[in-house]
Amino acid sequence: MAASLKGILQGNLAENIQKSKILVVGAGGIGCELLKNLVLTGFKTIEVIDLDTIDVSNLNRQFLFRKEHVGKSKSQVAKESVLKFNPDVDITAYHDSIMSPDYDVNFFKQFTLVMNALDNRAARNHVNRMCLAADIPLIESGTAGYYGQVTVIKKGLTECYECQPKPPQKTFPGCTIRNTPSEPIHCVVWAKHLFNQLFGEEDPDQDVSPDTEDPELTAEAGQTALESKAKDEGIGGIERKSTRLWAMDTGYNPEKLFNKLFRDDIKYLLSMETLWKKRRPPEPLDMANLPADTDSDSSAMRDQRQWSVKECADVFGQCLGTLKQELATQGEGGMLVWDKDDTTAMDFVASVANIRAHIFGIPMKTRFDIKSMAGNIIPAIATTNAIIAGLLIVEAVKVLNSRLNACKTVYLNRVPNDRHRLLNPCVLDPPNPKCYVCAPKPEVTVVLNCSHFKVGALQDKVLKAHLGMVAPDVEIDDGKGTIIISSEEGETEENNEKLLSDFAIKNGTRLKCDDFLQVYSLVITISHIEKLSDDKEFEVVGDLSELQPKEEQQQEPVSNGDKESAAPSTAAKDDDDDDLMLIEEEEEEIQEQPMEGDLQPSRKRKASDDEAQPVKRAKTTVPDSAADEDVIEIS
């Protein structure tokens, strides 16, 4: 192998490849193809990490796995399988999460190069920060159906993964989900909420009961509806208490649950007359008087055949019985976790979503379609994975050949663009000076109501969920060094239910946030506001100018010509959470020759420049899919 490599590769490249140590994060669709490419290219020392086990659904594209491997560790089986291509390679496999504290900065520093084949944004953010802290080049990749991309990230020279704002996950107002669904996805979300209310982790924000605080209701109409419900003991037949407790009291009786959810609650919604002045009112269903079955194609597969309302009701009852037994095995206080690949859990959501859709006059969907919506599924294409894995190797060879200035962000299109290309290379962008991760002094502003926002929410929803920290420590920059959040277990847990205002946190307060695992520090400036638009709990912005009305923003001079935009990029799909972004390609020819010297600004548009412009030629950015491409969370 060494002799053949030296005959093919120029200079010291063959030696650099053999001496390099590579970390592959993810052993799914792209990961399998990438590992095969690495060992066949001549890489000798590889470590691979993946938390997942092999599922039957992986076998159609993750070619290193076979039926007998189902249930086993992806990373371990991938190692064993790929060694058959080249048994001389030294491969270490970890069945673990890359976000574990065991994989600290010193762990990352031992590698020459890190290559991502991940399927979620949180892990991508974390690897991005660890590579920045360790100053190790990172090659990022992703696929979604026929689309894909590869890019190179190097501290101080290129944009990091978080330099440009990612479109937020698509959410729906609670009142739409509870009161006025108009699309199948609304019913699917409601069905998943119901599963959690009955069997999973109860969340007040996922209550499935009619919403009496719907903005469409006047105060008078809402109060009338409440009084009507209080007087009418027949509606629901229960006191106001958790859905779980009431269901348990009934023994998860299918008829009682069905009639409460799809008859009594719907009648209550109809009492909110204001809601139905300009839209079709729902029609309550009684389990004893369901619509007659319609003829359906009995030869079609169960997943592909449209279930009737009667069939959905039968499936609903069967699932209740099975899930009740599964919940009982969890012991007191136990719960179930919804999984699209759990047959009973998926049947429950499919049947419930279709029943609710029928009630509101929304087209019913097959189980296959509902699974796609509920699991955020984009069909995986094995060829796409193979192409992207090949591009990963191409960019890795450039890095190891000390030609970082020749690296590109490469987009794979579904059909050739106007230049007859499926692959569209773009010059790498330099770092965003306002990035809250890789800027010299990262800062953000968090807008919220200090009198309503709790410390626990700051930790879980802002620092961990939104800003991607793993184990944050937070100190008030008040000269006293008051610590309100500590990563040490038990030190500040009593603060979680306290309000920010209890610590004298107010408009203009600055918080010093550190994540020692990620070697990441961030200063947060609190902007107090009584109420945000769209009933948001908080908003993270780059600076307060972004909150000004457009007229005021236009009057404000932009000092450096690089005003940050908080708006998400144009969405290419309308059903999935944040699947693809269509990016306008500039008219001028994209530079394809290696650049001289340091990286120059790219000719692909910035997220803040052409956001609202019509798309001329589409390039897809898919930085949030890969290792298991059937479940996609793409930014």
Could you characterize what this model shows?
- The chain has about 625 residues and is an alpha/beta fold.
- Helix content is about 30%, strand content about 15%.
- It is built from 17 helices and 16 strands.
- The protein has helices at about 1-10, 15-20, 30-40, 75-80, 105-110, 120-135, 175-180, 185-200, 220-230, 245-250, 255-270, 310-330, 345-360, 365-375, 380-400, 455-465, 550-555, and strands at about 20-25, 45-50, 90-95, 115, 140-145, 145-155, 410, 425, 445-450, 470-475, 485, 510-515, 520-530, 540, 580-585, 620.
- Strands 3-2-1-4-5-6-7-8 form an eight-stranded mixed sheet, sandwiched between helices. Strands 11-10-12-13-9-14 form a six-stranded mixed sheet, with helices on one face.
- β1, α3 and β2 form a beta-alpha-beta unit.
- α1 (about 1-10) crosses α2.
- The protein is globular, with a radius of gyration of 27 Å.
- Residues about 220-240 and about 545-635 have low confidence and may be disordered.
Mean pLDDT: 81
Distance between the first and last residues' Cα: 39 Å
Figure out the total of helices. 17
Low-confidence stretches are 219-239, 544-635
Over the alpha carbons, how many angstroms does the gyration radius reach? 27 Å
Taken from the alpha-carbon principal axes, the silhouette is globular
Percent in helix:
25-40%
Q: How many extended strands?
A: 16
Portion in beta strands: 5-15%
Oligomer: single chain
Major β-sheet strand ordering: 3-2-1-4-5-6-7-8
Largest sheet: 8 strands, mixed
